[in-house]
Amino acid sequence: MTADPRVKTLLKILIGVAWIDGQIQPEERAYLHNIVKEKGLENEPEIQPLLYEFRPVKAAECYGWVKEYLGEQPTSEACQQLIEAISGLIYSDGTVDTSEAKLLTDLQLLDPAQAPSEPGKSPVLTAIRSVYQRWISTLNP
Protein backbone atom coordinates (compact mmCIF):
# COMPACT_ATOMS: atom_id res chain seq x y z
CA MET A 1 0.00 0.00 0.00
CA THR A 2 1.37 3.38 -1.01
CA ALA A 3 1.17 6.23 1.48
CA ASP A 4 -0.96 9.25 0.65
CA PRO A 5 1.45 11.94 -0.66
CA ARG A 6 -0.41 14.68 1.26
CA VAL A 7 0.00 12.76 4.53
CA LYS A 8 3.72 12.32 3.83
CA THR A 9 4.08 16.02 3.05
CA LEU A 10 2.17 16.92 6.24
CA LEU A 11 4.53 14.73 8.29
CA LYS A 12 7.55 16.34 6.63
CA ILE A 13 6.10 19.76 7.52
CA LEU A 14 5.63 18.72 11.15
CA ILE A 15 9.20 17.41 11.32
CA GLY A 16 10.39 20.68 9.73
CA VAL A 17 8.43 22.71 12.29
CA ALA A 18 10.09 20.73 15.09
CA TRP A 19 13.47 21.72 13.57
CA ILE A 20 12.51 25.34 12.86
CA ASP A 21 13.91 26.58 16.20
CA GLY A 22 17.20 24.77 15.58
CA GLN A 23 16.63 21.53 17.46
CA ILE A 24 13.93 18.95 18.13
CA GLN A 25 12.76 18.99 21.73
CA PRO A 26 12.19 15.58 23.44
CA GLU A 27 8.44 16.23 23.65
CA GLU A 28 8.31 17.12 19.96
CA ARG A 29 10.27 13.96 19.14
CA ALA A 30 7.79 11.79 21.05
CA TYR A 31 4.84 13.58 19.42
CA LEU A 32 6.28 13.04 15.92
CA HIS A 33 6.99 9.36 16.53
CA ASN A 34 3.40 8.87 17.73
CA ILE A 35 1.95 10.63 14.68
CA VAL A 36 4.14 8.67 12.25
CA LYS A 37 3.14 5.41 13.93
CA GLU A 38 -0.54 6.42 13.93
CA LYS A 39 -0.33 7.11 10.18
CA GLY A 40 1.54 3.83 9.57
CA LEU A 41 4.56 5.53 8.00
CA GLU A 42 7.36 4.29 10.29
CA ASN A 43 9.07 2.56 7.37
CA GLU A 44 8.48 5.24 4.75
CA PRO A 45 11.85 5.99 3.04
CA GLU A 46 11.12 9.74 2.73
CA ILE A 47 10.14 10.05 6.39
CA GLN A 48 12.73 7.86 8.16
CA PRO A 49 15.86 10.03 7.72
CA LEU A 50 13.91 13.10 8.86
CA LEU A 51 12.15 11.39 11.76
CA TYR A 52 15.33 9.81 13.11
CA GLU A 53 17.19 13.13 12.74
CA PHE A 54 19.83 11.82 10.36
CA ARG A 55 19.81 15.32 8.91
CA PRO A 56 18.41 18.64 10.11
CA VAL A 57 15.61 20.35 8.23
CA LYS A 58 16.18 23.97 7.28
CA ALA A 59 13.36 26.52 7.57
CA ALA A 60 13.36 27.10 3.77
CA GLU A 61 12.79 23.39 3.19
CA CYS A 62 9.90 23.38 5.67
CA TYR A 63 8.34 26.42 3.95
CA GLY A 64 8.74 24.62 0.60
CA TRP A 65 6.77 21.66 1.93
CA VAL A 66 4.08 24.04 3.20
CA LYS A 67 3.78 25.52 -0.30
CA GLU A 68 3.68 22.03 -1.82
CA TYR A 69 1.03 20.93 0.69
CA LEU A 70 -1.23 23.98 0.23
CA GLY A 71 -0.75 24.41 -3.52
CA GLU A 72 -0.91 27.61 -5.54
CA GLN A 73 -4.40 28.61 -4.36
CA PRO A 74 -4.74 27.42 -0.76
CA THR A 75 -8.22 27.08 0.68
CA SER A 76 -9.14 28.47 4.05
CA GLU A 77 -9.96 24.95 5.22
CA ALA A 78 -6.51 23.62 4.20
CA CYS A 79 -4.80 26.53 5.97
CA GLN A 80 -6.82 25.97 9.14
CA GLN A 81 -6.13 22.22 9.14
CA LEU A 82 -2.41 22.87 8.75
CA ILE A 83 -2.44 25.49 11.53
CA GLU A 84 -4.21 23.00 13.81
CA ALA A 85 -1.74 20.21 13.00
CA ILE A 86 1.22 22.49 13.62
CA SER A 87 -0.33 23.84 16.82
CA GLY A 88 -0.55 20.28 18.16
CA LEU A 89 3.18 19.82 17.63
CA ILE A 90 4.01 23.23 19.07
CA TYR A 91 1.88 22.51 22.14
CA SER A 92 3.72 19.22 22.76
CA ASP A 93 6.70 21.00 24.35
CA GLY A 94 4.65 23.73 26.02
CA THR A 95 6.46 26.66 24.39
CA VAL A 96 5.95 28.69 21.23
CA ASP A 97 9.29 29.77 19.80
CA THR A 98 9.38 32.98 17.74
CA SER A 99 10.21 31.00 14.58
CA GLU A 100 7.19 28.76 15.21
CA ALA A 101 4.96 31.80 15.77
CA LYS A 102 6.30 33.35 12.54
CA LEU A 103 5.37 30.21 10.60
CA LEU A 104 1.85 30.30 12.04
CA THR A 105 1.57 33.98 11.12
CA ASP A 106 2.79 33.26 7.58
CA LEU A 107 0.15 30.53 7.28
CA GLN A 108 -2.50 32.95 8.43
CA LEU A 109 -1.48 35.34 5.65
CA LEU A 110 -2.01 32.55 3.10
CA ASP A 111 -5.56 31.95 4.32
CA PRO A 112 -7.90 33.54 1.74
CA ALA A 113 -10.70 33.87 4.31
CA GLN A 114 -8.57 35.82 6.77
CA ALA A 115 -9.80 39.39 6.94
CA PRO A 116 -6.91 41.62 8.03
CA SER A 117 -9.40 44.17 9.37
CA GLU A 118 -10.40 41.92 12.27
CA PRO A 119 -7.70 42.34 14.93
CA GLY A 120 -7.90 39.74 17.69
CA LYS A 121 -9.90 37.36 15.49
CA SER A 122 -6.80 35.90 13.86
CA PRO A 123 -6.77 32.08 13.71
CA VAL A 124 -3.08 32.18 14.58
CA LEU A 125 -3.70 34.25 17.69
CA THR A 126 -6.61 31.98 18.59
CA ALA A 127 -4.41 28.90 18.11
CA ILE A 128 -1.58 30.38 20.19
CA ARG A 129 -4.02 31.43 22.93
CA SER A 130 -5.46 27.92 22.91
CA VAL A 131 -1.98 26.38 23.18
CA TYR A 132 -1.10 28.57 26.15
CA GLN A 133 -4.46 27.99 27.85
CA ARG A 134 -4.04 24.20 27.54
CA TRP A 135 -0.45 24.46 28.76
CA ILE A 136 -1.44 26.58 31.75
CA SER A 137 -4.32 24.22 32.60
CA THR A 138 -1.88 21.28 32.69
CA LEU A 139 0.31 23.21 35.14
CA ASN A 140 -2.63 24.07 37.40
CA PRO A 141 -4.97 21.06 37.37
Radius of gyration: 15 Å
Number of domains: 1
pLDDT average, as an integer?
84
User: Uncertain spans, ≥5 residues at pLDDT below 50?
Assistant: none
Our measurement of the CA-to-CA distance between the termini, rounded to an integer number of angstroms, reads 43 Å
Helix count from the secondary structure assignment:
7
How would you classify the helix and strand content by structural class? mainly alpha
InterPro entries: DjlA_N (IPR007791), TerB-like (IPR029024)
Organism: Stenomitos frigidus ULC18
Protein name: Tellurite resistance protein TerB
Describe the structure.
- The structure is a single chain.
- With 141 residues, the protein is mainly alpha-helical.
- It has one domain (5-139).
- Helix content is 65%, strand content 0%.
- The protein has seven helices and no strands.
- It has helices spanning 5-19, 26-39, 48-51, 59-70, 76-92, 98-110, 123-139.
- The N and C termini lie far apart (43 Å).
- The relative contact order is 0.14.
- The mean pLDDT is 84.
Detail the topology: elements first, then pairings:
Blueprint (H helix, E strand, L loop, with lengths): L4 H15 L6 H14 L8 H4 L7 H12 L5 H17 L5 H13 L12 H17 L2
Helix pairs in contact: 1-2, 1-4, 1-5, 5-6, 5-7, 6-7
